[in-house]
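Chapter review: from sequence to fold.
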Amino acid sequence: MSSPNERVLDLLNRLTDWARGNPDVRAMLLIGSRTRADHPADQWSDVDVVLGVTDPDPFLNTAEWLEPIAPIWVSHVERTPVPGVVERRVLFDSGFDFDLIVVHGDSLIQVIKNEQASGIIRRGMRVLVDKDRIFSRITLPIAPRAIYEPPTQAAFLNVVNDFWYHAAWMTKKFRRGELWTAVTCNNGYMKDLLLRMIEWYSRTVGATSDVPWANGRFLEEWADPRAVRELGGTFAHYDPADLRRALRASMSLFRWLAIETAFQLNYPYPVEGDAQVSAWVEQQLADET
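The token string follows.
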């Protein structure tokens, strides 16, 4: 029986052969974990492919063109971080997932040179199809050596104040009985702010040499161990009592990270604002019980 990696490679080879034989597909580029040395692919990794085509619409409007490759469980389209670029995500039989970024061949060079896209491509790429020698005309500028730039005082304080504002805001939603809104604020928006503070803390106080990956990827490897340990308690179940517990844990963890980061950066910390919001939130949570 073949291994998962062998079966993924077989699917990729089928897709490549299909692309070579389809006149509407002009180029095909493999990117992502399947091509990079840092955190390379494992059995759980997807396959990231860029397709340069004559007209993206037929590839984005339906997934029928993928049926000759292998049986499909589900497929959908979604936007990518690159403005105006959409990808078709497909889950093939046995759970193998491919992310197929479909762009017009004439705009492929501009898409690849996009700042966000080029950052991914520099980690690794492999040209699989290039019927018009598009990639021979692409030269990515040399990326400058990554130098950590700490947040400005204004940016730092904005995140801190944003967090405490939403601690009060979600408490109001909670007291009104809008549990869904309160839970999603705690588990979503406020966690994005907490993640940013974890990143800043790791780079200033923790003095880590690792560059944090986007969206918290591999956080367990580069974040402060104490922050990682305490993160679990900051997420709430869809339950009023558990939300109260998670909010208190979120506030405690954020406060510790923010105060230590502010001290290291020689920035002021809004102690009074923190205290006022925290006391008010605690009063509201106590009244609820």
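Two observations follow directly from the output. The first strand starts at residue 25 and ends at 31. The mean pLDDT is 85.
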